[in-house]
């Protein structure tokens, strides 16, 4: 968990989670750029990213070394 490899992978996962939550929010809301609630969208994305990072930290040591994943590599 104390390596740059771990944090790069965790940051990638957090970014993907943030993007997925934004897309989900906007898809459900019928996104209109002129009436979008950007503070809400930012909060939802930040919350998803934070939850993803916390999940990665909790998962550290369960899978492969230096990986935020709970599962091991392919055999």
Attribute tags:
mainly alpha, elongated
Detailed description of the structure:
It is a single chain. By secondary structure, the chain is mainly α. It has two helices and no strands. Helix 1 packs antiparallel against helix 2. The model has no long low-confidence stretch (mean pLDDT 89).
The shape is: elongated
Helix content percent band: 55-70%
Distance between the termini: 23 Å
Order of helices and strands: HH
SSE layout:
Blueprint: H1 4-29, H2 38-59
Helix pairs in contact: 1-2
Task: Describe the structure in brief.
The chain has 75 residues and is mainly α. Helix content is 64%, strand content 0%.
